Amino acid sequence: MKFFILDVDGVMTNGNFYYSVEGKVLKSFGPDDSDALSILKKYMSIEFITGDKKGFNISKKRITDDMGYKLSLVSTMRRKEWIQEKYNLNDVIYMGDGIFDVLVMNAVGYSIAPANADKNAIDKADFVTERIGGNRAVSEACLHILKKFYGLQSLEDEINSRNKLDTGEWNIC
Amino acid sequence: MKFFILDVDGVMTNGNFYYSVEGKVLKSFGPDDSDALSILKKYMSIEFITGDKKGFNISKKRITDDMGYKLSLVSTMRRKEWIQEKYNLNDVIYMGDGIFDVLVMNAVGYSIAPANADKNAIDKADFVTERIGGNRAVSEACLHILKKFYGLQSLEDEINSRNKLDTGEWNIC
Amino acid sequence: MKFFILDVDGVMTNGNFYYSVEGKVLKSFGPDDSDALSILKKYMSIEFITGDKKGFNISKKRITDDMGYKLSLVSTMRRKEWIQEKYNLNDVIYMGDGIFDVLVMNAVGYSIAPANADKNAIDKADFVTERIGGNRAVSEACLHILKKFYGLQSLEDEINSRNKLDTGEWNIC
Amino acid sequence: MKFFILDVDGVMTNGNFYYSVEGKVLKSFGPDDSDALSILKKYMSIEFITGDKKGFNISKKRITDDMGYKLSLVSTMRRKEWIQEKYNLNDVIYMGDGIFDVLVMNAVGYSIAPANADKNAIDKADFVTERIGGNRAVSEACLHILKKFYGLQSLEDEINSRNKLDTGEWNIC
Which of A87, C66, C121, C162 holds its CA 20 to 30 A away from the CA of D94? Predict the structure, then answer.
């Protein structure tokens, strides 16, 4: 596995769109996901895709400006094709939660869904986290990937070994 | 069944009204409901009603401006009469969550309540979703309707058949 | 029982205070509580107290401006005395959720706590709702009071009888 | 035990960061934690640390301006060292929820995690609260500390004894 591609809403957030009279104004991101991705990114290329056009700039603020990852606007209906054009599908781990994500999950090498994902996504995913989106689902997914595909034995050992080398690099809350 | 009429607060949202010193300023909508309604709307006429006058413009931003559905201001106490004046009650599926929605549920052809609805609404509803409002309750209701009344076998087949015809039409997140 | 006195935060809300860099800016109120109180207020005098000075104007916007009830600023430590000075304690039903509310619950005629209240409050309360604050706890409490103290048999009958007399009065969402 | 050091996000809040297009704009604090800390502070020195640089001013508004406690910006990766430089580690009770907090928990005299903490933090903590962060986890932790380390028998007695001496001091909601 070389590429970890994640959906944003419902995966990095609880899926909620907070509306004012001006429209979609807030999204709610959660703890530890950024930290866990910081560990995983030494092993895999990580990027995000979202189908949310109206909320794109909110997601971009978190994913790109604050966390430093690439974010692309890709409709769920066209995700499989989009991934296929760029990567070997078998090299891709995809994490999504939506009603149409089953289309992507059928195609990629490995798929992950958060606990509160759409039922079809949960049935289809290779791994379902115990935590919900925006509440450590991505953190849990990262540790699962590190153990399953990269032989991580103990998070503590991993943290301690890294701590000596690059203290301060992590922790983009 | 020809008409699907949905309440907004507690059905499309988690029921919460976020208040600042200015009053009601935010509501929280959820994932997949818009996508699932996009599938169902080929089979049924879909519209929304709300009793929330002060929060009407917030709901309208989401339901009408962003999702494209009609939204009418109708007190729960007068919903049965309002529906009756426009439609044959037996042709209507109603989804609501409130303490007075039992009045509507008694009258329409088929009724649905989200998991976190008022107890009386839950007892009276023909179908109760496993998910709560603002967390895929409407998405689940749409799939239930498609299976029960329109013989949908597999969501994946439905998605794939449509994908060829109108790629890009869905996905108003 | 003549007086129903309710705490606001954690009872009418989920207890959360949303902070920006400006301080406390949002609270989250829920569905049905306003409707259920509208039924109960024909039987009892209803008022609210809060210990939240900094968030008082947010609570006041909801409780007084939008719902029409009196709201007083009373520290939990002085609530028992405050109630005692105004009313016969035995005539009062109190609903609260906090760590100090046990002091009030010991003194009043009847006490109610939402499902997510402080443990001591839950142990002491005469009735604990199944729903949490900001998610129909007050609505559930109102129906409990109507059944226990005023012999309500069926909410539906009550609604129907009132519907004829004062259509449109309820429904301050 | 002389010092109680608490993380902020996920401990005093539910861990959520609410983003607008401007970035991180809101955090959600909960009930009773401020009141319970007011009791504990007569027995222990209490201070807060956070790794959240971008949200520091939001946390500071709640923790320092409204509640009156010291708040320091300390990366989770450097927390153990930071504590060690200031205090005897054995005198410190630490409460944290994050993926890296296991490093701190290994070092201090006693550690506490909220119910929704990272799995490793939960496994390592000496005490895990039943409540989640932002929903009385800190209040529960305070009562646990008072009972375990200071022989508190009954919260009610404690409240009543204090009530006579310093009425009005508590209750910074």
Answer: C121
